[in-house]
Every structure is written in C-alpha cells, then in structure tokens.
Amino acid sequence: MGQIRVTRTPIEGLAVIEPTIHGDSRGYFTETYNQNDMRGAGIDSVFVQDNESMSTKGVLRGLHFQKEHPQAKLVRVIEGAVFDVAVDLRRASRTFGRWFGVELTQENHRQFYIPEGFAHGFLVLSDVARFCYKVTDFYHPGDEGGLAWNDPAIGIAWPKLVGSYRGCASGEGYSLEEGTPLNLSEKDQRWKGIGETFAFS
Questions:
Q1: How far apart are CA 169 and CA 189, in angstroms?
Q2: What is the pTM of this model?
C-alpha cells in the first residue's frame, strides 16, 4: 500500500497518478498497477483489457468516446512523450465540455485515470511514442463516437502545435512548431464539434 501519489484535477473523477520508482545504478522497478493502492485512493474500476499503440511524432488520435458502452481508462506512456487530454461529456456534470490535459512521458512515469463519460485523445510530441492503457469494457464495433480535436467550444491548448482553425476538424495547415505536419486519420478529421454532437433538446 501507499505506492502511488494521486493528484485530483479540477474536473471531478480525473486523476493523475504517480507510482513510486525504486531505482539504483542497475535501473528501476515500479508497480504499474496495484488494485489495493487504487482502491485506497478511491478508484474502484475493474479493468478487463490492456491495449498498446505506437505512433510517430505529430500524430493526434482523438477525440474518441464510447456511445453505449463507456469505458474508464488508465493510460501511460512507456516510450516517448504525449500530451493526453480528456473532455467531460457527462451531461449532468457542472464541468460538461471542459478539458484537462497532462504530459505523459517515459521519464515521468505518470498515469492518467479517466473515468466513464469522457472523450479522450493525445498528441505525440516525441519521434515515437508507445502508449499503454487499461480499459473497463471490451471493444464493441460500431460504438465509437468522436469530437473535433480542435473545436473552439472546447478550446484545447495542444502544446507545440501551430495552425489556424478552418471551421472543421481537418489537420490541413497544422504542424508542430519544429515543422512536423499534424497527422490525423480520415475519421478523426470528420468529427463535429461538441455543440452539434451533444445538442440539448
């Protein structure tokens, strides 16, 4: 017990988790997940699947959410660096539509806990990033939704990214400050803004 430090964020439910690192001249050891420590910190999610992705510099994945089968996630980076973002989509929440972001790197060992009811995405800042995450539900084909990563109504301040909003989620004209073009999937360039996606009746 007591092997993690949990920092709560201004958005209820989101948390940044820092594990204890035991290091010496040989390298280091850390527990990347301990159910007892998580429960002691008030995080009771039961994870059923581990995923891993590899992306290159300038790749932006997101903003994704699950429509009928929401997942809580515990995300971390084992190589490289990303800026990781969650957007509150809980309609009854006082922070609906607000975002929070954190830089996850292989050096800082931070993890980001994202409960159910959030959209999620990340921007790769290093040459290569390997991204690992636990989820609380299995993949359900056809259940994925999304939001425009650059929606002004959300206003995510993606670090080291330059470009001008052109009224859609296209990555055209965007790049990292050092010149690497922004790289998005075709699907991620078609998502709409939060106002259109979650219009209240």
A1: 5
A2: 0.94
| Separation of first and last alpha carbons in the chain | 47
Provide the annotated active-site residues: 64, 133
Please give the backbone phi and psi of residue 36, each rounded to the nearest 5 degrees, phi first.
-65, -45
The one-letter amino acid code at 152 reads P
Q: What is the mean pLDDT of residues 16-33?
A: 94
Q: Residue 142: CB partners within 8 Å, gap ≥ 6?
A: none
Cα–Cα dist 115/71, whole Å: 7
CA–CA separation, 15 and 116 (whole Å): 13
Residue with tokens 């209820």: 12
pLDDT tens profile 138-189: 989 889 999 999 999 999 999 999 999 999 999 999 999 999 999 999 999 9
Question: Can you tell me the distance from the alpha carbon of 103 to that of 97, in angstroms, rounded to the nearest whole number?
Answer: 20
**Cα separation, 45 vs 30, whole angstroms:** 21
